[in-house]
Amino acid sequence: MVEPVARIRLYKPSEEDDKLVRFVLGKAYMGLLAEANQRAYFHPLMIASWVAMSCIFIQVMHWWPDYDAFGWLSFLKPLPAFASMAVPFMFFIDWRNRPAFEKLTQNTLRKPDIFDIASYYSRSPASGLWILEYGQSFVGLIAVDASPDSTSEITISADTTCEFTSGTSAVATIRHFHVEEKYRKSGVQDDLLEHALRRTFESAEQVQKVRIVYCPLATYIGECLRKYGFRTVEHTSVSGVSFEECALDRSAWEKKSI
């Protein structure tokens, strides 16, 4: 039996790769929505509110344990109250968080690079979109934009016509960085980031810095960035969701690569 082989390959201008990239980027923020919801579930204030409302419900329904009448089984009596009260809290948290992450997803899919991936990332030799695969399975992707528009955050609609110039900027931007959840514990995101940084810095001397704006809810990205010497530049908020801008200078990269 032939063992699957891991490989990092350059994006191919094909319908299959186009669908894959758009699908992955479309679901990436939904994964962060689940993380945001989970953190909210275990917030001390939320837990205290849930317990308080459950106790009120138990009091109204007279579901407190009665050991003398039912023995140890009576301690199961309040459980339905706790379970039923958890549902509206979970619904409220998702209802509150979902619009922001859906808007972020829409904005990502309306970026100029998504409309014509091949043309956009071919304007500079230091740009590229790389896909990590394990056998036939998709593992992750990373996209680096080193074009003159590398720091632009505009969004466009389907009927918008954009003209972009070729060339290489002094500042490159990691526009997309995603690894499937089941592969993150293996640390493959480190290999993907290292590959992209090497290709970017070694392909063009003009590139003096690589930056990324990411959501700290993606903790695996933050850990990966710190390993390679990225420093925090700024904390921002988009649609109520926290983001962090980090940057890596060429000198720091070259020092680490020696």
From TrEMBL:
<keyword id="KW-0812">Transmembrane</keyword>
<feature type="transmembrane region" description="Helical">
    <location>
        <begin position="70"/>
        <end position="93"/>
    </location>
</feature>
<dbReference type="InterPro" id="IPR016181">
    <property type="entry name" value="Acyl_CoA_acyltransferase"/>
</dbReference>
<feature type="transmembrane region" description="Helical">
    <location>
        <begin position="40"/>
        <end position="64"/>
    </location>
</feature>
<keyword id="KW-0472">Membrane</keyword>
<protein>
    <submittedName>
        <fullName>Uncharacterized protein</fullName>
    </submittedName>
</protein>
<dbReference type="GO" id="GO:0008080">
    <property type="term" value="F:N-acetyltransferase activity"/>
</dbReference>
<keyword id="KW-0808">Transferase</keyword>
<dbReference type="InterPro" id="IPR050769">
    <property type="entry name" value="NAT_camello-type"/>
</dbReference>
<keyword id="KW-1133">Transmembrane helix</keyword>
